[in-house]
Design a protein that fits this description.
mainly alpha, Rhopdopsin 7-helix transmembrane proteins, 9 helices
């Protein structure tokens, strides 16, 4: 099969391309910066790099799928989310562990369960395996579990007892999950439940949301790691 090329007017395809390149650049950045920080922060930056690397690979496939079919690459997108979103949830636990905050494995387990519920039922609704409204409600329960844990649960309390830098980073990360991630359910509602958004708009919104939520999420962790490593060197 001949290689498919983007057309000048295919703005959705261009958005897939920009995100894939941005994710590759972010991967290299986080891996390089991981060499500059203290030992306890290197795993956090490695996970941030893995999030972007996995997304870069999937966006390469999603771009080609879109160019070939002009339809939403649901299966690739959800495979990506099924890997990268749990990794982002791990980051909450990792940054607390890096500063020695008292947070148990049960906090990580609740974040993981919430993530899986949110993603599995979101996919089932979008793919048509179950009623989109019922799937949406169940998926939102998963998101609610995540929001509770990072705003009022054990993870939030552990962050509150940490230093100011950790508290600031934790607050920024959970704001991304609350506000940035809200784009996804809004896209689901308007695209699949109300039918008021076409595939072009929906994919551009999802792509930009991934670009911001994944890379910005990693940058917050990088900034915290650099600050903590710099303070320790003085």
């Amino acid at each position: 099969m001949d290689k498919l090329f983007l057309q000048s007017g295919d703005f959705v395809g261009v958005s897939f391309w920009l995100v894939s390149i941005g994710m590759i650049a972010a991967t290299v950045f986080f891996l390089y910066e991981g060499l500059r920080v203290k030992q306890q922060w290197r795993l956090s930056l490695l996970v941030a790099a893995l999030v972007c690397l996995v997304a870069a690979v999937h966006y390469d496939y999603m771009r080609d799928f879109w160019v070939a079919t002009s339809s939403t690459p649901n299966i690739y997108r959800y495979i990506d989310w099924l890997i990268t979103v749990p990794l982002q949830m791990i980051e909450f636990w990792l940054i607390l562990a890096a500063v020695g905050a008292a947070v148990g494995s049960s906090s990580f387990l609740r974040l993981l369960i919430g993530t899986l519920v949110m993603l599995v039922f979101g996919f089932m609704g979008e793919a048509g395996y179950m009623d989109s409204t019922i799937a949406f409600v169940i998926a939102m329960v998963g998101w609610a579990i995540i929001i509770y844990e990072i705003f009022a649960g054990e993870a939030s309390k552990a962050a509150g007892s940490s230093n100011a830098s950790v508290q600031g980073a934790f607050s920024a990360m959970r704001l991304i999950v609350l506000v940035g991630w809200a784009i996804y359910p809004l896209g689901y509602v308007f695209g699949y439940m109300l039918g008021q958004v076409d595939a072009n708009t929906l994919n551009i919104v999802y792509n930009l949301a991934d670009f911001v939520n994944k890379i910005l999420f990693g940058l917050v962790i990088w900034n915290l790691a650099i600050k903590d490593s710099g303070e320790a060197s003085h």
